[in-house]
Write a structure and sequence with these properties.
Strand content of chain A: 25-35%
Oligomer: heterotrimer
Radius of gyration of chain A: 17 Å
CATH superfamily of the domain at 16-106 in chain A: Ribulose bisphosphate carboxylase, small subunit
Number of helices of chain C: 15
Strand content of chain C: 5-15%
Helix content of chain C: 55-70%
Radius of gyration of chain C: 23 Å
Chains: A alpha+beta (about 140), B alpha/beta (about 475), C alpha/beta (about 300)
CATH topology of the domain at 16-106 in chain A: Ribulose 1,5 Bisphosphate Carboxylase/Oxygenase
Number of strands of chain A: 6
Largest sheet of chain A: 4 strands, antiparallel
CATH architecture of the domain at 16-106 in chain A: 2-Layer Sandwich
Helix content of chain A: 10-25%
Order of helices and strands of chain C: HHHEHEHHEHEHHEHEHHHEHH
Number of helices of chain A: 2
CATH class of the domain at 16-106 in chain A: Alpha Beta
Largest interface: A-B, 41 and 39 residues
Chain lengths: ~140, ~475, ~300
């Protein structure tokens, strides 16, 4: 199962050159790029771990790639890694682009638990199979 | 024609019938206040009716006047309450039609009420006999009045944060056929489309609670589909559950049920009326619900150029009323839409400030006073092969709805959804890489179609489809190209 | 393609503008400007050779700028960034200027993030490390500077397309630094030595600075400044153009006090913009020389 969060998940995994092009697009718009990683890809897990703070005042994508290389060394293969670009323009002040750059070697996906209630209602709980293991052991 | 702007009370209030212009509804020296509501009407006077008298009549009939002089005016600060027509220009290139600017004092309107605003501005006056036709083209809403409205319950930014989807248009589809599917079959379409790659599926405007599918059944099956698709993709998914019903009580009941089931979005139709829309917007804000509005019925009064009202006015009222989504045209699809006019609608919905832009049909500078931004929805006769044009004309903050273009895919609904998503992501990627994606669009799609079979099939199926008719609602100030 | 029109290449590159700006901004410095022209020509030819397939290795572009303070190293580094950008050797052409404190942390684990943070910002441009020898403190074997040096060397070697590093400082100290850090020496392609300004050049610099602020020197003041320069040079902490700039700032203060104290009625525009000899001769530099006490 391939999770399809992020802007480019339906395309083949981006090459480094393709990542650089997207990062440069963000930097050229004045957005600060942040690298984030997680081993719990639940669709509502908003707060992935931050690899450092958003990179303000970095004009060239090579600077961001330096950080991505470090993050990959620490978490590649066992975590999802994504790039998120923050726009501080008045009236927006949120993300403008967010895409996955790295995935764990295998993606087991999610279980959907159903709690049957009265009146034919069902309560739904989505659980990542990976998250049933403790943090740090999920994709190793 | 020169009208006397100053009024002699003795003559003014003598019993009898008097020209509106002489009653004080025409004041060419009037300078609108920052707090005035300004309306721009296109008037077509009856033969022999002077355009200034016609404009004054519109000002009068949409504010304090009646057909004859009444002495009770003199018990009020009537000079303030009278709307003032202060400018009349001939419409360029259209003999017999005039643009007229009319200013209304803020105290003429109840705060936070579209119903009250519209009861004045479009209340009686459209049936006025001295006019052949009348069209409300645009309004300038003062910041002071905007601040009495809630505005969109969620807004584009927060909607994106809730959905965790950034940097690309959202993708949707309307379940087809519009009518006749059972709840169980209906949910099947929803699941397939969401799992295949769409973000949203939508009830159509006339899906409420009919013999073939009652509303609870639809809601239950749809939410099974939404949750199953979320687990299958790891993405947040949604379905606009249409809560339109015969009474407010029924609508609230349906909205509450949607909330209980965990839906992130509900939907209403424009035909429920302005007050009902505002009520639902408040409900949506209270309940963290995105509110989708289908503009059902608007074309009965927005499409003809000489009578009714321009859709951009509906856009303004709906942003004030508080909806999060509104259908606002596709440029390239099957429904009415001149590219420049649509740009004006989209700007009105999405920008914090829209400057006057006559080419786009925007007659006034409009400050939106921090009201949230509305997500426009492009729906009707569009398909993956037009992706470069859609992004070029409509931008990134829009829901692109491919109903037929998803469900009619020769390899099935999932394949149709995948084709749309791949086309979209490939085009956004190319745009961000700095390519001339409008010119290279077909090549970009062809390259993606080499590794994506569903996209290849979609392009083969719909490559020649376009709806190339002349638009009826076009700008008056420049020649406009026809939609591609 | 088997021929390249170097003249047209030069015109198209926009190097002209960069070199002209260098001339405008910096008085004198003939040997430095000559070295810059040589390097620019070399890079232009190198680019032509690459286009024709005569060379494939990207050239090493890291440099060292040696010379006393105030001799124009930072200004030249900015122009160098522009030149490298115009020739396509760096993508953005910005200059990030740092010293040891920006790169080296005070606690264990702080240095690598600090150095990397600087590198991230400098990528695509030129990183200018002033007084680079402070990175290396042999007297303390656990000095964190060594960590910064290792990270820098790695990037200088592996990311030559992404970053050009210029190391700057006093000539003698840089020599010592390079002999104990052969890794740096071997990665530096161009050395430029910045000589001290001659007395006449410093007076010319003063004229330029004043003109930009809308002031001028009176005739006697011109002579006084010449004397000032000759004396100041022999005293401690002499920093070439920077010392002149500071001296002029103080002269403007004295001029203001003089105008304020001595003029009862109105002052003319001419008086307001003229520095007189006494505004300069009141400096402690003259007192120090006369009484042979430190400044």
């Amino acid at each position: 199962m391939r999770i399809t969060q992020g802007t480019f998940s339906f395309l083949p995994d981006l090459t480094d050159d393709q990542i650089i092009a997207q990062v440069q697009y963000c930097l050229d718009h004045g957005w600060a790029v942040n690298i984030e990683y997680t081993d719990d890809p639940h669709p509502r897990n908003t707060y992935w771990e931050m690899w450092g703070i958003p990179m303000f005042d970095v004009p060239d994508a090579a600077g961001v790639m330096l950080a991505l290389a470090d993050c990959r060394k620490a978490h590649g293969g066992t975590n999802y890694i994504r790039m998120s670009a923050f726009d501080n323009t008045y009236g927006w002040e949120s993300l403008r682009l967010s895409f996955i750059t790295d995935r764990p070697a295998s993606e087991p996906g999610f279980a959907l638990d159903r709690q049957e209630r009265g009146g034919r209602q069902i309560g739904y709980t989505t659980r990542a199979y990976s998250a049933m293991k403790p943090e740090g052991e999920r994709y190793s | 024609m020169n009208m006397e702007p100053t009024i002699d009370p003795k003559k003014r209030y003598a019993a009898g019938v008097m020209e509106y212009a002489k009653m004080g509804y025409w004041d060419p020296d009037y300078v609108p206040k920052d707090t005035d509501v300004i309306a721009l009407f296109r008037i077509t006077p009856q033969d022999g009716v002077d355009e200034i008298e016609a404009a004054a009549a519109v000002a009068g009939e949409s504010s304090t006047a009646t057909w004859t002089v009444v002495w009770t005016d003199r018990l009020t600060a009537c000079d303030l309450y009278r709307a003032k027509a202060y400018r009349v220009d001939p419409v360029p290139g259209t003999p017999g039609q005039f643009f007229s600017w009319i200013a209304y004092d803020l105290d003429l309107f109840e705060g936070g009420s579209i119903a009250n605003l519209t009861a004045s501005i479009i209340g009686n006056v459209f049936g006025f006999k001295a006019l052949k036709a009348l069209r409300l083209e645009d309004m300038r809403i003062p910041v002071a009045y905007l601040k009495t409205f809630q505005g969109p319950a969620t807004g584009i930014v927060v909607e994106r944060e809730r959905l965790d989807k950034f940097g690309r248009p959202l993708l949707g589809a309307t379940t087809k056929p519009k009518l006749g599917l059972s709840g169980r079959n209906y949910g099947r379409v929803v699941y397939e489309a969401l799992k295949g790659g769409l973000d949203f599926v939508k009830d159509d405007e006339n899906i409420n609670s009919q013999p073939f599918m009652h509303w609870r059944d639809r809601f239950l099956y749809v939410m099974e589909a939404v949750n199953k698709a979320q687990a299958a993709t790891g993405e947040v998914k949604g379905h606009y559950l249409n809560v339109t019903a015969g009474t407010m009580e029924d609508m609230y009941e349906r909205a509450e049920f949607a909330k209980e089931l965990g839906s992130c979005i509900i939907m209403i139709d424009l035909v429920i009326g302005y007050t009902a829309i505002q009520s639902m917007a408040k409900w949506a804000r209270r309940n963290d619900m995105i509110l989708h509005l289908h503009r059902a019925g608007n074309s009965t009064y927005s499409r003809q150029k000489n009578h009714g009202m321009n859709f951009r006015v509906i856009c303004k009222w709906m942003r004030m009323a508080g909806v999060d989504h509104i259908h606002a045209g596709t440029v390239v699809g099957k429904l009415e839409g001149d590219p420049l006019m649509i740009a004006g609608f989209y700007d009105t919905l999405r920008e914090g400030h829209t400057p006057q832009n006559l080419e786009h049909g925007l007659f006034f500078d409009q400050d939106w006073a921090s009201l949230n931004k509305v997500m426009p929805v492009a729906s009707g006769g569009i398909h993956a092969g037009q992706m470069h044009q859609l992004i070029h004309y409509l931008g990134e903050d829009v829901v692109l709805q491919f109903g037929g273009g998803t469900i009619g895919h020769p390899q099935g609904i999932q394949a149709g959804a995948t084709a749309n998503r791949v086309a979209l992501e490939a085009m956004i990627q190319a745009r961000n890489e700095g390519r001339d994606y409008l010119a290279e669009g077909p090549d970009i799609l062809a390259a993606a179609a080499r590794w994506c079979g569903p996209l290849r099939a979609a392009i083969d199926t719909w490559k020649d489809v376009s709806f190339n008719y002349a638009s009826t609602d076009t700008a008056d100030f420049v020649p406009t190209p026809t939609a591609v | 393609m088997d021929a390249i029109d170097l003249k047209r290449d030069f015109a198209a590159s926009g190097l002209d503008a960069e070199l002209a700006q260098l001339d405008r901004e910096l008085v004198g410095l003939a040997p430095v400007k000559q070295r810059i022209r040589e390097i620019a020509a070399l890079l232009l030819v190198d680019r032509a050779r690459q286009k024709l397939g005569l060379s494939t290795e990207p050239p090493t572009l890291h440099m060292s700028f040696t010379g006393n303070p105030g001799t124009g190293k930072t200004t030249v580094a900015m122009r160098m960034a522009g030149i490298l950008h115009k020739l396509g050797y760096v993508r953005r052409g910005h200059l990030v200027s740092v010293t040891r404190d920006d790169l080296v942390g005070q606690y264990i684990g702080h240095t690598a993030p600090k150095t990397k943070d600087v590198l991230k910002k400098a990528m695509g441009g030129v990183l200018f490390i002033d007084e680079a020898y402070y990175l290396y403190r042999p007297e303390n074997e656990r000095d964190y500077g060594q960590e910064a040096i290792e990270i820098l060397l790695q990037v200088m070697e592996n990311q030559r397309d992404d970053l050009v590093v210029i190391l700057a400082g006093y000539a003698d100290r840089m020599d010592t630094f390079f002999s104990s850090n052969p890794g740096f020496r071997s990665r530096i392609a161009h050395h430029i030595d910045f000589p001290d300004y001659a007395d006449g050049e410093l007076v010319e610099i003063a004229d330029t600075i004043l003109a930009r602020m809308g002031y001028r020197l009176s005739g006697p003041a011109q002579i006084a400044l010449g004397d000032y320069v000759a004396r100041r040079r022999t005293q401690p902490h002499f920093a070439n153009a920077r010392s002149i700039r500071n001296a002029l700032d103080r002269a403007r203060l004295r001029q203001a006090v003089r105008l304020f104290d001595r003029h009862e009625g109105t002052v003319s525009a001419d008086q307001l913009s003229t520095i007189e000899a006494e505004d300069i001769r009141a400096s402690r530099v003259f007192a120090a020389a006369d009484t042979a006490t430190p400044a």
